[in-house]
Amino acid sequence: MVRSDDAYMQDEPTGDNNDDEVLDLGWSKLYEEMDEESRKEFDADVRRDRERARLARIADLKAIERMKQCAAQVLPYFDGEIPLAVPGESLRYHVQLCFMHEYADSYIRNLIMQICRTLCSAIEVMRARQSGSSLAKYMQPECIERIEMMRSVLTCDPRTLPEPVLRMRYAPVMPTLVHVMMLSETVMEVSIHLTIGGKHHCGNMRLVRVGSRWMCVLMDLG
């Protein structure tokens, strides 16, 4: 039954605190009615719950401390340029880590070059200039199958292809910008800007680390 506002106001706290007052939810009476064995089980449950609460509290404090430390630290990143074979042209890259880790500049540079070689080789497979097996070292089979499917489109009758698609069959490929987001030590996502015969394109890749090798599991070129 809902009480009226007047009745409710009569029960408002007066501000007089009683430090000895105990909140009793009926457990004391229930405890008195228990036999000795039930009391032992009850006491054991209480101790176990208190220990769980203590451990959970410690875990929360540790998590908060880690968050404070991360907030005070700047996550590492790498910026650089790699000269291209075309005079006056270079590939710019930015690699952002989402975790604290130390990588040598040479490791990051070689990683960027591997990404670009994998992308360019995939385009050559689409053009039927290389076999899909040439990608097996750095690309998973499911991804190679999709690239070979794209090859069947590019190698059909040229008269049926629109100009942008036709250009992809022969125009030179030049990557110009690579942006890498390393989500963990085993997963990264890549965005690539490149030109094919002067036409700008964007590509996306997802790489996972298998042993000591980074393998491409997803590639999209548009």
Features:
alpha+beta; DUF6459; 2 domains; 6 strands
Describe the model.
This protein is of the alpha+beta class and 222 residues long. The chain has 2 domains: 34-72; 77-221, Roll (Nuclear Transport Factor 2, Chain: A), CATH 3.10.450. The protein is built from 6 helices and 6 strands; from the N terminus they run αααββαααββββ. It has helices spanning 5-10, 27-33, 36-72, 105-126, 141-154, 163-167, and strands spanning 77-83, 90-97, 173-182, 187-196, 199-210, 213-221. A hairpin with a 2-residue loop joins β4 and β5. It is elongated, with a radius of gyration of 32 Å. The model is unreliable at 1-13 (pLDDT under 50). Residues 1-21 are annotated as: Disordered.
Describe what is shown at a glance.
It contains 6 helices and 6 strands; from the N terminus they run H-H-H-E-E-H-H-H-E-E-E-E. It has 222 residues and is of the alpha+beta class. The protein is elongated.
What's the arrangement of secondary structure elements?
Layout lengths: L4 H6 L16 H7 L2 H37 L4 E7 L6 E8 L7 H22 L14 H14 L8 H5 L5 E10 L4 E10 L2 E12 L2 E9 L1
Parallel strand pairs: 2-3
Antiparallel strand pairs: 1-2, 3-4, 4-5, 5-6
Helix pairs in contact: 4-5
Order of helices and strands: HHHEEHHHEEEE
* Outline: elongated
Number of domains: 2
Mean pLDDT level: 79
Q: Do you know the CATH architecture of the largest domain?
A: Roll
**Broad structural category:** alpha+beta
What percentage of amino acids are in beta strands?
25-35%
Helical content, roughly? 40-55%
- From the alpha-carbon coordinates, what is the Rg to the nearest angstrom? 32 Å
Region (Disordered): 1-21
Pfam families: DUF6459
InterPro entries: DUF6459
